[in-house]
From TrEMBL:
It holds the Pfam family GDPD. Gene3D superfamilies: Phosphatidylinositol (PI) phosphodiesterase. PANTHER family: GLYCEROPHOSPHODIESTER PHOSPHODIESTERASE, CYTOPLASMIC, GLYCEROPHOSPHORYL DIESTER PHOSPHODIESTERASE. Its EC number is 3.1.4.46. It is an enzyme of class 3 (hydrolase). The keyword Ribosomal protein does not apply. Transmembrane segments: none annotated. It comes from Peribacillus deserti. Keywords: Hydrolase. InterPro entries: GP_PDE_dom, PLC-like_Pdiesterase_TIM-brl. This is Glycerophosphoryl diester phosphodiesterase.
């Protein structure tokens, strides 16, 4: 069965990367949650997609330049089109305190392509181990050095490279860096590549799959999983396929 991962929680219907969107992901019947992490100035692992808080909150500035107390004060539902109550940017620890009681899987994307965030890998792995969640976590990044570093630190945790440019035989590349999966953009992966990769034992989880046509296509070929901003729609689509 194709697994469904709620992208940034359920970013299509709820403020992205907030506890509201994670609760919605669970309610939707998705198997997994995808979220993005960065480090605050004082070294807290916070869940946010952009390097700055400007787009998703009523605050201003770069995550790397703000202490967690300042970040916590911003409203992360402020810019969302539909009005929700106030909610703040969660820490990874806050997320785990809830997540550990669910049966969900979680893909943590390390957002260290623009700023390196020294120590991010160690902190994320430390938290995963603290909550004993190794078997329910996949670590991914566009920064493939970072996931190789994760593998060196914690070979028991699955890693997966994310990419948005064409890769020739991506399953061979994935294996060469000890990945068990690839996370390609839906724009650069063909059905035959998905099938070949899965045959080679490398799972394929394309992002971000929001159209019904793409969802059906992936479900029909039994693609391992996909990321979507609309998990409820994806679960419905899978039921009728
Ligand atoms: O991990 C897949 C996807 O989340 C990568 O793109 O920009 O939504 O983080 P982005
Ligand atoms: Ca992401």
């Amino acid at each position: 069965m194709t697994q469904i991962f709620a992208h940034r929680g359920s970013a299509g219907t709820h403020p992205e990367n907030t506890m509201m969107s994670f609760h919605e992901a669970l309610r939707s019947g998705a198997e997994g949650i995808e979220l993005d992490v960065q480090l605050s100035k004082d070294g807290q692992v916070v869940i946010i997609h952009d390097e700055s808080v400007d787009r998703t909150t009523n605050g201003k500035g770069y995550v790397k330049d703000l202490n967690f107390d300042e970040i916590k004060a911003f409203n992360a539902s402020h810019k969302f089109t539909k009005q929700y109550g106030k909610t703040s940017i969660p820490t990874l620890e806050e997320f785990f305190l809830w997540f550990k009681y669910t049966a969900l899987i979680c893909n943590i994307e390390l957002k260290n392509g623009v700023y390196p965030y020294p120590g991010l890998e160690e902190k994320v792995i430390g938290l995963i181990r603290k909550f004993n969640l190794q078997e329910r976590i996949i670590l991914s990044s566009f920064n493939h050095y970072s996931i190789v570093h994760c593998f060196q630190l914690a070979p028991e945790i699955e890693i997966a490279p994310i990419y948005s440019n064409g890769l020739f035989m991506p399953w061979i590349y994935a294996r060469s860096i000890r990945g068990k999966a690839i996370h390609p953009s839906i724009k650069v992966i063909s059905d035959s590549m998905i099938i070949e990769s899965m045959k080679a034992g490398i799972a394929v989880r394309p992002y971000t799959v929001n159209s019904e046509a793409h969802m059906k296509r992936l479900i029909d070929i039994k693609c391992s999983a996909f990321f979507t901003d609309f998990p409820e729609k994806a679960v419905r689509s899978r039921k009728i396929s």
